[in-house]
Automatic annotation (TrEMBL):
Identification of the protein by name: XYL2 arabinofuranosidase
Organism: Caloenas nicobarica (Nicobar pigeon)
Domain annotation Glycoside hydrolase family 3 C-terminal: ranges: 103-226
Source organism, top-level taxon: Eukaryota
Keywords linked to the UniProt accession: Glycosidase, Hydrolase
MF-aspect GO terms: alpha-L-arabinofuranosidase activity; xylan 1,4-beta-xylosidase activity
GO BP: any one term: arabinan catabolic process
InterPro entries assigned: BXL (IPR044993), GH (IPR017853), Glyco_hydro_3_C (IPR002772), Glyco_hydro_3_C_sf (IPR036881), Glyco_hydro_3_N_sf (IPR036962)
Pfam families on file: Glyco_hydro_3_C
């Protein structure tokens, strides 16, 4: 609220937040937190002790129900390791969730889905900065997975019975330096071309918005070259 000029000081922010019913502050990494001004607000009479208790009670009730104060031995999740998290059952469920979350905007001539039996002996080109770059595949606040469990478009498509070639065109989503020859060469020699474009956290993230919805850098040129 302070950053948006709704309040002028942390003290005003603490009072306004408590009056609004807030009982939890995202303050990681800050030395001077809003909640540290609650005692001052209480001493000045801006908030009451009963109001403070009303805010604290549901917060700690929820934390207790979540087991935050239990001994580690009582937490059933503390013994889970990658053999459980990356079990075949969980990986299969993740794949199902991914497939069902795709949004297909246009499917000319029923091109999709690509089927392994239709690609045997075919040449498949994967182009674009997202073709085989694991680092750019994860959004803001995403966990860092084990590398062996990351499937880039290239790695996924290589599981099909096809001859797969890759041409990123540009190494990062900003796509400031574009190698047109690589993309044209790969696309021109292929029977099927998969173009992998987008933004990623290098282009947009919390506190870093784009001014328009255009593809970054030379990505539109890359797409046009692949289509041509």
């Amino acid at each position: 609220m302070l950053g948006h000029h709704y309040t002028r000081t942390f003290l005003e922010t603490a009072v306004a937040s408590m009056n609004a019913g807030c009982n939890l502050e995202l303050s990681y990494g800050m030395r001077n937190n809003v909640f540290m001004h609650i005692p001052q607000a209480l001493a000045m009479g801006n908030i009451t002790l009963q109001m403070l208790r009303d805010r604290v009670r549901p917060l700690f009730y929820t934390r207790m129900r979540l087991g935050e104060f239990d001994p580690p031995a009582m937490n059933p999740y503390s013994t889970l390791d990658l053999s459980v998290v990356q079990s075949p059952e969980h990986r299969s469920l993740s794949l199902e969730a991914a497939v069902k979350s795709f949004v297909l905007l246009k499917n000319v001539r029923g091109t999709l889905p690509l089927r392994a039996q239709d690609l045997r002996g075919q040449r498949l080109a994967v182009v674009g900065p997202f073709a085989d770059n694991p680092r750019v595949l994860f959004g803001d606040y995403a966990p860092v997975p084990e590398p062996q469990y990351i499937y880039t478009p290239r790695r996924g498509l290589e599981t099909l019975a096809a001859n797969v070639s890759v041409a990123a065109g540009c190494r990062e989503p900003q796509c400031q330096r574009y190698s047109r020859a690589d993309v044209v060469g790969a696309a021109g020699a292929a029977d099927v071309v998969v173009v992998c474009l987008g933004t990623g956290i290098d282009v947009e993230t919390e506190g870093k918005d784009r001014s328009d919805l255009s593809l970054p850098g030379h990505q539109l040129e890359l797409l046009q070259d692949a289509v041509q």
